[in-house]
């Protein structure tokens, strides 16, 4: 395991974010549980898979294109792209929160760090946008560089969440995987799985607790 993989893995046992994660989840999950149609729509039941990864291409694409425009001296276009990136962010945030609130403990930890990195990038791009209107391009370009770094880090963490931890895999439907004609994914986690993970972490063992029938 290299240093990047070790760092991403270490986020799974970061208990310092548990308090904030639980407070946020206590607001989001009951709200969506009372509105099952909205919950399923945001988690992509209509598409057959999570829709967060599709929606995040909008801000990421706009910010990346803005960086190219800045390099080419196309300041006006860069500013418009940053406006579009900021305007497309709520869709990514809402679908991300809906998915995150239904994940297991270790995934929620990584997800919260991912959300904080994305919040940092949004603040940087907002400051970039404001600077381009008020104080000029130099400060605006500086904030955009910081924003792109934060969105890159957030993407790496999101990738770990999706591909290493399997977040979002078969979470979009109540139906078992077999019922939608797919290979079965990991079985849904239960509170006792979370407790087992906590015990493992408290005991200094950071590996994921074994889940019978799971991955
Ligand atoms: C502008 C805001 C955001 C961006 C650009 C973003 C970006 C990403 C990216 C690139 C991935 C990896 C997807 C893949 O390659 O398959 C991801 C996954 C994920 N993100 Fe976000 N994210 C944002 C906001 C949030 C927020 C606020 C949350 C809530 C905590 C969140 C929760 C998740 C979850 C649960 C996953 C894993 C499941 C999945 O792939 O759908 N994201 N995100």
From TrEMBL:
InterPro entries to which the protein is assigned, alphabetical: DUF2231_TM (IPR019251)
Keywords: Membrane, Transmembrane, Transmembrane helix
Source species: Actinoalloteichus fjordicus
UniProt domain DUF2231: residue ranges: 48-169
Extent of Basic and acidic residues compositional bias: 174-185, 204-215
Membrane-spanning parts: 81-98, 110-130, 142-163
Protein name in the entry: Membrane protein
Top-rank taxon, per record: Bacteria
Region described as Disordered: spans on this chain: 174-215
């Amino acid at each position: 395991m290299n240093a990047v993989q070790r760092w991403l893995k270490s986020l799974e046992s970061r208990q310092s974010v548990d308090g904030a994660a639980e407070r946020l989840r206590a607001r989001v999950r009951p709200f969506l549980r009372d509105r099952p149609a909205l919950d399923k729509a945001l988690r992509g039941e209509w598409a057959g898979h999570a829709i967060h990864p599709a929606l995040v291409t909008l801000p990421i694409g706009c910010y990346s294109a803005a960086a190219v425009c800045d390099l080419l001296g196309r300041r006006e276009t860069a500013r418009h792209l940053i406006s579009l990136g900021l305007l497309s962010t709520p869709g990514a945030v809402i679908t991300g929160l809906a998915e995150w609130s239904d994940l297991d403990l270790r995934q929620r930890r990584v997800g919260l760090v991912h959300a904080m990195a994305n919040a940092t990038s949004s603040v940087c791009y907002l400051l970039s946008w404001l600077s381009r209107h008020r104080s000029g391009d130099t400060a605006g370009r500086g904030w955009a560089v910081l924003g792109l770094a934060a969105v890159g880090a957030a993407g790496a963490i999101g990738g770990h969440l999706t591909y290493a931890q399997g977040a979002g895999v078969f979470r979009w439907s109540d139906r078992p995987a077999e019922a939608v004609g797919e290979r079965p994914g990991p079985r849904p986690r239960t509170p006792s799985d979370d407790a087992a993970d906590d015990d493992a972490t408290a005991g200094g063992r950071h590996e994921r607790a074994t889940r019978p029938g799971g991955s």
